[in-house]
Amino acid sequence: MDLQVEKADGVKGCIKAPASKSYSHRAFIAAALAEGESILKDPLYSEDTLATLSACEQLGALFQRYPDKCIVQGTAGYIRTPDDVVDVKNSGTSVRILSSIAAIAPRANYTIFTGDESLRKRPMQDLIDALHNLGVRVTSSQNNGTPPIVVQGGFDGGETDINGSVSSQFISSILMAAPYSNKPVTLNVRGTFVSKPYVNMTLSVMEEFGIEYEYDTTNTPEYSSYYIEPQRYECTNYSIEGDYSSASYMIALAAMLPSDITIKNLYRDSMQGDKYIIDIIRSMGAVVDVADDYIRIRSDGKLSAVDVDLSNAPDLLPTVSVLMAQADGTSRITGVEHARFKETDRVHNCALELGNVGVNVEELRDGLVISGSASGGYVDSHMDHRLVMAFYVLGLKIGHVKIKDASCYDVSFPNFLEVMDEITY
Asked: Any catalytic annotation for residue 315?
């Protein structure tokens, strides 16, 4: 499906942010590992999170889905062998976290994870190597460090190291499985620790489901360590907060256009790294009021250039790049080399598509230099949901933007078009 986007005049209203994709993934997995029945309030049912939910069902958990809640009968850690290959479609979070989870099955069990063409290019070798040190037999079926991934049951535990500069999902993966290891797990994160807020989110969900852990950063700034004893996840009732990643498109649009909008279900004390979008639009000229559970944005639509480091919020790259594409002056994004290993190479593809709508852009190894001059044009989505939504927002600002293969926004924000229509005039 192609989308033709025309200019909007402004943004107004009061709307609820969609539920967090990241928290939904983690809550589905924690509830699936727990003993007993958990109730998850306000989960996100998107293509990515449904991939996790379906995979957890194949591993033995039972899910009852309702519009406002999900009731989960957990496995208490007794993972079964799926009857078939587990297809997680385009969800990198699913394949990475669940590869460790599948290892807590009995030693004779084998689980195979695969996905679409894009997912089969996602790097996994750092996780594979770290799991080997914990007694887990896991391999890339093509011996190239990417899915399909074959996991044999058996999680001995012990101590392992992992590079923190590639993906925080590798760290979250080992942490979530560690409580069901045969002996304690020590996970040492070495080097630059990118996207650390996502690991903090993982740990906060684990704590809500009764898991205790220790964290040590006393050695050096380039080294941190997690320690988890064998224990069980406990069932609980858990509410899933709004998603700053998905809300970033509404927030960016409100900054770009004359606006007065309130977005509910966004929390002041959220651990989500993507709440950094609030600081970014403030520095560009928008007015943002932050309450305990909502934000209000007002803007005249005139924004100034800014330099930002997105190392802890790489998913904001497409959103921030289109903000800069219509700001006054030259802006710079740094710290996002790891965004090259998302659904697509987002650094390169953002640069390419910004150029296609008339923006003067320079691609760096770890970011972009952008001079706001967007005039419209034809954009290829590269089947990346975040590129679709970001360039749709830009189209509402400048008009005359057409997006190829735009339907993939369903991956994280199924009612994106309806929401954009509701808040614009």
From this structure: yes
C-alpha torsion angle, residues 108, 167, 241, 116 (rounded to 10): -60
pLDDT digits (tens, 9 = 90+) for 353-387: 999 999 999 999 999 999 988 999 999 999 999 99
Q: Which of 116, 315, 384, 405 is catalytic?
A: 315
Q: Residue 21 — φ and ψ, nearest 5°?
A: -65, -45
Which 3 state secondary structure label does DSSP give 87? strand
Distance CA 263, CA 296 (A): 6
Taking only the tens place, the pLDDT of each residue in 64-103 is 999 999 999 999 999 998 999 999 999 999 999 999 999 9
Predicted structure pTM score = 0.92
CATH domain 3-17+243-423 topology:
UDP-n-acetylglucosamine1-carboxyvinyl-transferase; Chain (3.65.10)
What superfamily does domain 82-228 belong to in CATH? Enolpyruvate transferase domain (3.65.10.10)
- DSSP E strand boundaries for 149-222: 149-152, 158-163, 185-190, 214-220
At 346 the three-state DSSP class reads helix
Does position 343 have pLDDT exceeding 90, yes or no? no
Give every CB contact of residue 90 below 8 A, 6+ residues apart in sequence: 47, 48, 51, 115, 116, 118, 119, 343, 383, 408, 411
CA distance 194 to 201: 14
Q: Which two tokens stand for residue 175?
A: 């942490």
Residues present in the chain in total: 425
Chain-centroid distance, C-alpha 319: 14
